[in-house]
Every structure is written in structure tokens, then in C-alpha cells.
Amino acid sequence: MPSKIPIENLTKGDDYMQKYFPKGVCSREIIFDVDGGKIKDVEFVGGCEGNLKGISHLVEGMDIDEVIDKLSGIRCGFKNTSCPDQFSKALKEYKEKANS
Known about the structure:
It is a single chain. It contains 3 helices and 4 strands; from the N terminus they run ββββααα. It has helices spanning 49-59, 64-71, 83-98; strands spanning 7-12, 15-20, 29-35, 38-45. α2 (64-71) packs antiparallel against α3. It is of the alpha+beta class. Strands 1-2-3-4 form a 4-stranded antiparallel beta sheet.
């Protein structure tokens, strides 16, 4: 897997889900879909379950750019990143991949 774009496509029924492998956080995977520029079906594997379920529900249906703006740069403790920040990175890489 290339380190520059750690996103894979997954099939879920007739839809293609995105799978991102975050770095430097407790979460091991972030699975999500984007439909018409809106976020849907976000799932974090590992990490702080309650908080990440809350984030998943809060971003559901939001515009991808709004989610990137809100979550980008959030830190967890002394780490330079967080699970929400890693999700914003996943969305940025998704956009780059989708536009190429």
C-alpha cells in the first residue's frame, strides 16, 4: 500500500466505501462514503468508541469541505494529530484521488 494515499476502495452492496489507515492515533481504520459531496456511513475501528461514534453521527450528511475545515488540526493530548484530524486527512486524500 503506498504511504502517500492510504485509501482503499471497499464494496458495500452497490456502493464503494473508502477505507483509510490513520497514523499516530488509537484508531486503526476509518471507513466512510461520500455521496454528492456529503459524508455518509462513517465508522472508526478502534479508538475511543463513544467519542468516535458521536463524531460519526455528527458529520453524517455534512458537506465534505465543511467537515475538513471543522476537524483539521484537532490534537489529542500531546499528539500532533487525533482521530478527527486523521479523518480530515482521509477526506482530503479522497478528494485528491477523486479529482485525479
